[in-house]
């Protein structure tokens, strides 16, 4: 799994928005609110898709 840092994920509403978007993109993932991360189970293309979805929601994702 590749981990994406989402430092501006602050609440359960953020988690719901992220979950809905990434499910809609057909990704396998885990959202960790306390750690402010999203872990994507997939290849680099799927990670890029997740980053694009997060950016479209207004978040500032970073790999690492």
Polypeptide structure, described:
This protein has 64 residues and is of the alpha+beta class. The protein has one domain: Alpha-Beta Plaits, CATH 3.30.70.100. It has helices spanning 12-24, 44-56, and strands spanning 2-5, 29-32, 37-40, 62-63. Strand 2 (29-32) and strand 3 form a beta hairpin. The chain starts with a strand and ends with a strand.
Low-confidence segments: none
Mean pLDDT: 97
The span between the termini is 11 Å
Label the overall shape. Answer: globular
Beta-strand residue fraction: 15-25%
Radius of gyration: 10 Å
| SS content category | alpha+beta
Topology summary:
Elements: E1 2-5, H1 12-24, E2 29-32, E3 37-40, H2 44-56, E4 62-63
Antiparallel strand pairs: 1-3, 1-4, 2-3
Features:
single chain, 64 residues, alpha+beta, Alpha-Beta Plaits, four-stranded antiparallel sheet, 4 strands, 41% helix, globular
In short:
With 64 residues, the chain is an alpha+beta fold. Helices cover 41% and strands 22% of the residues. It is globular, with a radius of gyration of 10 Å.
